[in-house]
Amino acid sequence: MKRMLLACLMGTLLLTVTQAQNKPLPAFSPTRTEMLQRYKVATERDSMVRKTAFKLSVMPNWSGSSAFWYRNVLADSITQYFLVDPITINKKPLFDVDKLAAALINAGHKNISIQKLPIKNAYLHPDQKKLAIAVENNFYEVDLLQYQLTKIDSLPVDKTIYPGLTRAANRWQRGRMAKTSPDQQWNLVVKEHNIYLEPAKGGTLIQYTTDGTADTPYGEVSWSPDSKHLIAYKIKRVVDKPVFYILTSLPNTTRGEVKERPYKQPGDAFTTYEMFVINVADKAIKKVQTDIIDFFDAPKLNWNAGGNTHFMFERVDRGHQRFRIIDVNLADGSTRNIIDEQTNTFIYEQKIFTHYLPATSEIIWITEKDGWRHLYLVDAKKGAVKNAITKGEWVVRNVDSIDVAKREIWFQASGMNQGEDPYFIHYYRIGFDGKKMVTLTKPGFNHRIVWSPDKKYFIDTYSTVDQAPVSILGRVADGKQLMELEQADISLHKAAGYRLPEPFSAKGRDGVTDIWGVICRPSDFDPNKRYPIIENIYAGPQDSFVPKLFATTGEMQSMAELGFIVVQIDGMGTYNRSKAFHDVCWKNLADAGFPDRIAWMRALAAKYPQADTNRVGLFGTSAGGQNSLGGLLFHPTWYKAAVSSCGCHDNRVDKQWWNEQWMGYPIGKHYDEQSNITNAHKLKGKLLLIVGEADTNVPPESTYRVADALIKAKKSFEFLAVPGMGHSDGGTYGRTKKRDFFVKSLLGIDPPDRNADELE
User: Fold this and answer.
1) 136-194 pLDDT, tens per residue?
2) What is the pairing mode between strands 641-645 and 611-621?
3) For a Cys staple, 674 with which of 16, 349, 497, 590, CB 3.0–4.6 Å?
């Protein structure tokens, strides 16, 4: 019996301890007086933060092909100048500060501070014996041996050829019609909707087409490289319908001004192009054996080696589910598909990358056809992939350059390193055959590289959101780090009490996929209190958005200072992960990754009980404005308050090219079912709508139609239209209203009465 009583007593004790352990922390709930003080502190920190971190990057100024100088600005505007020679791996002061200061004083600049020389700009001559400088409104050439100044009219122009990035060429060529033939023998004339040629040295016009009309004129004509053929289109023009907005508050007027502009919305028709080949010698006209082009503009032509018999063009079908590279035979207008990619979801048209190698009849192509974004080498003659250049469960992010002679590609990628944030960007070099890959960057950081003009060296600045930047000099040949240039100095930043964001990952809706985000807390964060969560949301499928680089300030940290935990998350449906991860958005923009975001925040609260999942808000602009209102409409048990700025609330109202890419074509009932306007009657929680009346990105009526639907549904909400403002979060005033809204909605405290000057 005693044993039973003892067991019961121990059980009761354990239950009491467990209940105490599971008891939620008390909610952070400041008084209004404390809240006003928090506003003042947040404002002070916003102004102070730019003066607390230094040497965050190295911006090289090249002198010749490899050497460079750079500038550091330290506390109290103290300035340093350094010269780096990668060949000798040597870093030294760019000039003798004392001697240059003395020379400037002798030249009449009396108020010179040795630590703050007033140099606005500079140019180092390639021989490194002379330095041209701009001081106040004067320009001088400095002899770096004698420190003699010679006054000059301006700084020399830097004629160094810098390496450019290799980007996907625009595959549409509207308005690029060349008048004169490559051999300079003919001038092209489009007259009365038809094509004529006239001898360049003078002579009679020769008519080549006769069936062009006002409704279907010929145009967008291109020459073959040998001047023997014309590629022309019979065009049926479509004039885009306009959208309107009103400027209500123009100065010195008493009336609003109506503005209009052409604006293609989902479902609107496109101008069509019917392609023909014209033989200059015999005037024979052949229709190219391909369907009329009814999506985007006339394509750019890519000519084969020799440029006389074949050309290729790219075609994306409307609906974004088919991409082709089509070869055209000039002799008879016949065509064949070199690449014909088709998908059940979508092909991200703006991220299609192609690079043509006519000398070898090859094409470098980036595609997600195998589930991850990778590079392939295509045999243009056979119309087949020769080999995969890159492969694996990671993504190519960008191509920096292509060395045709060495048959190498320099590219950026993310996700290759196991155990690190899969969004971190790294730099690599690889052969066309997919062999001999060289890694140029170290794991564990996000990187940004600047190449030397001779592309033998690079400056790499790497960081994370919670690790300050380091800048190093590296060698391209083997990726070796030659020397550390700078480590960022954030000692004052930390001493001032600033908190750094925390990266955080958790499993998504499937319990398997890692979802990544960041957490911002107040500088005076109390681990014994629960804080409301505010999510900064942007779920646009065109990219990923959670920051990966170190930054000293930002809207999220400023809001956190008021007493919130502010987070940002990349859920499924956003870019830069696998194709399957991205495909979640297909005809499904209302999903916005919410199941992943909510799972992430649940995991956050499980690890950090200071995160109050009963008080969750969200805010966003543009697609984020659509998402923030969508959170209240479709997930009202989780989100309790939202600020929605300039939202594209109905995907039929917003721009065609963006919305059809993700929602598909033709326009189906899913557009209506996912509309915030259609679903406005479901509103729960508190809402602030913000719109700029002069928004030229998303038509303002997108927000006004939401307001109209809410009014008709007798819903309560707040509304702010900002006169004269374009596509934004409402500017300084809008951000102030956003902060006040969350203070009232999630903390239950009246914000400052600025009419009573409570913050002064």
Assistant:
1) 889 999 999 999 999 999 999 887 777 777 776 677 765 567 789 999 999 999 999 99
2) parallel
3) 590
β-bridge partners, 188: 197
d(CA 135, CA 692): 42
* Residues with Cβ within 8 Å of residue 671, at least 6 apart in sequence: 266, 650, 651, 652, 663
| CA-to-CA separations, 109 to 101, 104, 122, 140, 150, in angstroms, rounded | 9, 6, 17, 12, 14
Token pair belonging to 311: 């050309």
| The pair of three-digit structure tokens given for residue 35, joined into one six-digit string | 């809240």
The DSSP H or E segment spanning 47 is helix 32-48
DSSP letter, residue 241: P
Residue 389 CB-half CA count within 13 A: 27
Whole-angstrom CA distances from 84 to 7, 63, 158, 448, 702 are 76, 10, 18, 19, 54
Residue type, 453: P
108 CB neighbour count, 10 Å cutoff: 8
Label residues 436-455 b or e (16+ Cβ within 10 Å = b): ebebbbbeebbbbbbbbbeb
Strand runs (DSSP E) across 330-407, as ranges? 335-342, 353-357, 362-367, 374-379, 384-388, 395-403
39: DSSP letter: H
Q: Which domains, from first to last, does the chain contain?
A: 32-49+493-750 (3.40.50.1820), 61-152 (no CATH), 169-235+272-351 (2.140.10.30)
Residue pLDDT, tens place only, 28-85: 999 999 999 999 988 887 777 778 899 999 999 999 888 999 999 999 889 999 999 9
569-580 burial code (b ≥16 CB/10 A, e <16): bbbbbbbbbbbe
- Nearest Cα neighbor of 147 from 200, 94, 192 is 94
Terminal Cα distance for the chain, rounded: 71
Structure tokens at 732: 């300084």
For the full predicted model, state whether its pTM sits above 0.85.
yes
